[in-house]
Amino acid sequence: xxFLHTADWQLxxxxxxxxxxxxxxxxxxxxxxxxGLGALAAETGAEFVVVAGDVFEHNQLSPQVIGQSLEAMxxxxxxxxxxxxxxxxxxxxxxxxxxxxTAERPENVIVLDRAGVHQVRPGVEIVAAPWRxxxxxxxxxADVLDGLAPGPATRILLAHGGVDVLDPDRDKPSLIRLxxxxxxxxxxxLHYAALGDKxxxxxxxxxxxxxxxxxxxxxxxxxxxxxxxxxxxxxxxxQGVTVEPRHVxxxxxxxxxxxxDTGRDVADLDVNLDLLTDKDRTVVRLALTGSLTVTDRAALxxxxxxxxxxxxxxxxxxxxxxxxxxxxxxxxxxxxxGGFAAAAVDELVxxxxxxxxxxxxxxxxALALLLRLADRGAA
Length: 379
Hints:
By secondary structure, this protein is an alpha/beta fold. The chain is built from 10 helices and 16 strands. The protein is about 30% helix and about 20% strand. It has a 6-stranded mixed beta sheet. A 6-stranded mixed beta sheet has the order 5-6-7-8-10-9. Strands 13, 14, 15 and 16 form a 4-stranded parallel beta sheet that branches. It comes from Mycobacterium bohemicum. GO terms for molecular function: exonuclease activity.
């Protein structure tokens, strides 16, 4: 028996920093990743798809998002089993019970709206642990496994949430207890555990039968999500379980840490940004530290302005950026200005060097602008 394990689609997700056409393209990529599961299923011979929670970003979605999402699921063409997670729980406002979803839900889409065993076909069952609120007070997996005995069918657990061995606070009551889960696998109560919530591809424990598929399309920067963009092709037979990750994601959220102290450092950053491919599908967050002259800071600003036009988004990570701008001696002596203008420049230089943080930043920005304008005039 072969199926596709995926999770954390979070359809309807918005990223506040994406502007212009970047947000619609990002949303379309998430839907395309879903619709593309049909081609992957056909290629691999998968019988069905399981989605281990957080199908939607939240329960308050526009009719357009719901309709487009259902159409993407329809395009998969084989049964798709949806598990409500912490983003889209089965509460009073659930998207799954709304009139639009229930009216337009394709026949191949099945919502696992009760905890327990669901038959896929004779000999294959899903054991579902859906969320009914955003803050469960018990281990939902332990609850659904309580009293469940081994049976003749192959059973796939479909669950969402953190596992105790991966969480620094192992005493949280809602965490999935790995020891109990692996005991159920060892006794034949379950044969594979398909988990969601962690957005990076992650194997849990030593059995090789407990996995987070991760999100099929990136949702956060690479220091948070180390390995997103996958779907798992899972085989379960008499010999055991085989899991094959397939990379399907097309977007990247990249964090670059750089020390910039000279014009050469700025030029190196320019080269690094230029070498990044698929810029229209790449989000870049820069953590920059160092001390620059006003001239070099102006060159850095020009570099960032250029690439901000090319990438889906590029900007500074303010909490991790610490750039000092210190005017160099004689840096403004060749501008060919005199009188009151020269005196104003001297005052700006003094403020940029010795003023308080607010006034120094304003003076540095004014001097950088002056240099850029002077360069344009010379050109």
